[in-house]
From TrEMBL:
The lineage of its organism: Bacteria, Pseudomonadati, Chrysiogenota, Chrysiogenia, Chrysiogenales. This is Uncharacterized membrane protein (DUF485 family). GO terms for cellular component: plasma membrane. It holds the Pfam family DUF485. Keywords: Membrane, Transmembrane, Transmembrane helix.
Length: 120
């Protein structure tokens, strides 16, 4: 790609809007997962007896709260990943395609002008 075109893309307001929005969303999801995992570690460190409390299930098997919470944190991570992928496919990809299309159109005009300038 032409360096002028790359610089134009990096300096465009739409590109900055896309990167800001995507970064802000990713940071929110990251903080949500870190909070869930932090609570897990906090409870293990300071309330180990709480995580040892058994939860009876219908099959008469007993699973401690800690195991159930750990499985919940893992499922929450999968949910957050699916949420990011959904938002990326729905919003971020469309913004990316708009930015790309507008700058490729500008590049085509510049290439056309260059070709016309070279002809006698």
């Amino acid at each position: 790609m032409d360096k002028k075109l790359v610089d134009a893309i990096y300096n465009s307001e739409d590109f900055h809007k896309l990167t800001r929005t995507r970064s802000r969303f990713a940071m929110r999801l990251t903080v949500a997962l870190l909070v869930a995992y932090g609570i897990f570690l906090f409870c293990i460190a300071f309330f180990p007896d709480f995580f040892a409390i058994p939860i009876p299930f219908l099959t008469h098997q007993i699973i401690p709260i800690g195991i159930a919470y750990a499985i919940g944190v893992i499922c929450f991570a999968f949910f957050l990943t699916a949420l990011y992928v959904h938002r990326a496919n729905q919003d971020f990809d469309s913004l990316n395609q708009e930015i790309r299309a507008s700058f490729l159109a500008q590049k085509a005009l510049l290439d056309k002008e260059k070709q016309e300038g070279k002809q006698p």
